[in-house]
Amino acid sequence: MPTRLHKHFQWVGISVYLLALLIVSICFRTYAMKPLWMAWGIGTVLFYFLLTYFFHGRWKGDETKTFLKKVFWVAFGLRAIFVGAMMFYYYYQTGMSMEYGAADSLNYHFTASHLSDLARAGRLRELFWMLNGHTMGFSDQGYLLYLTTLYTCFGKNILGPRLLKALMSAYLCVVIYKLASRSLGEKTGRLAAVMAVFMPQFIHYTGTYMKETEMVFLATLALERMDYLIRSKRYTFWNIAFPILLTAMTFGFRTVLSMVIIASFILFILCSEPSLISKKAKRIALIAVAAVVVFFLFTPIGWEMLIIVHLNFGESTGLVDKYQQLGMKYAEYASYKYTAPGAFAMPLTNLVEVANENQKMMNGTYFVKNYLAFFAMWCIVAAIRERKWRNFGLIGSYTLLYVMMIAFSFAFNSERYHLPALPGIIIMAAFAMTHFRKRDFAFYYSYNVVLLIAILAWNYLKLAARGLFF
Question: Is residue 393 part of a domain?
Answer without folding.
Answer: yes
